[in-house]
Specification:
This is DUF2384 domain-containing protein. GO terms for molecular function: DNA binding. InterPro entries: Antitox_Xre, Xre-like_HTH, Xre/MbcA/ParS-like_toxin-bd. The chain contains 8 helices and no strands. It has about 140 residues and is mostly helical.
Length: about 140
Amino acid sequence: MLTFAAIADVLGLPVKGPAAATPFGLISRIEDGLPTGALDRLARLLAPDDAQFKYRFVPKATYERRKTAHRLSADEGIRLARVARAWSLARDVWQTDEDARDFLFRPHAMLEDKRPIDIVIQNEIGAELVLDILGRLKYGTAA
């Protein structure tokens, strides 16, 4: 089962006490504004060869402003946590970064031949579709 501590780990958030790894601890951190380093870390994990990937989450000009403030907005943090959740589950299912990336960046028939990563970034409903496919793969049902 995917834990909130795993999502925090993907985002590079230090776990400070037992509350930090709980759903409400993660929500609080997102609402307070995740550090811009969380975006940089997630972009390096998912697309290490694409320096522009992080701008899929935050436009370049906005990113530069966020870097000055050292914090992302709550909406940007939610999007990051959503992708971190999908990445964590993809890593759990596929066991390697390379195979998880291959799944996330390759068009999938159950997503009308769209790439899972694009669907996850787009919105929460899309993310649930991708997480459902990953859950089916993990637990051996049709995907």
